[in-house]
Write a structure and sequence with these properties.
203 residues, alpha/beta, Metallo-beta-lactamase, Chain A, six-stranded mixed beta sheet, 6 helices
Amino acid sequence: MLLEQFRVGPYLNFTYLVAESEGGDAVVIDPSYGIEPVLSAIDERRVKVGYVLNTHSHRDHVAGNDEVRSRTGAKVVAHRSAPLGQDLSVEDGDAISVGRLKVEVLHTPGHTKDSVLYLFEGHLATGDTLFVGECGRTDLPGGDPSAMYDSLLHRVVRLDDALVVLPGHDYGPTPTSTIGREKKENYTLRPRTREEFLKFLAE
């Protein structure tokens, strides 16, 4: 598998290029502002981008959708509730085949109603649901602290510890992590009741 992480745009966004191999089928995850380095890599690696995968609909995660789509002919993928012009709407449990790669969709509302994670080949693209050492905000339009509790403490913490976390922003001490490390070190994943979690977020 080919996996490249690009820090692009003014908000320390991470955009990912994932392919089965050089010259193979590929996806771009969360194309942000300043997408040119990703477009150059697509050409250099000679990959065929079939899909643009959006973890959620905030502008800094979808700003490059049209550029990637017009350059490659890729279909834009997002959760069915996302207010985007997606070509393919997905729900929890859906899977997308990209050559030999299989990408699974996990719906994790909280940061937005349409937030999803993409699971593939031992890696987990978490968007703004989970950062290295932190979680996404829930005080923006569409945010839901109670839904974030369910997504993090009923869903994310039950995932395989070995999964490599690919966050949506470069906000942590390292650009990637693992679920196991986050369960040990990320204070937002500490065991809490729903009431304790809501109070914690409010603080």
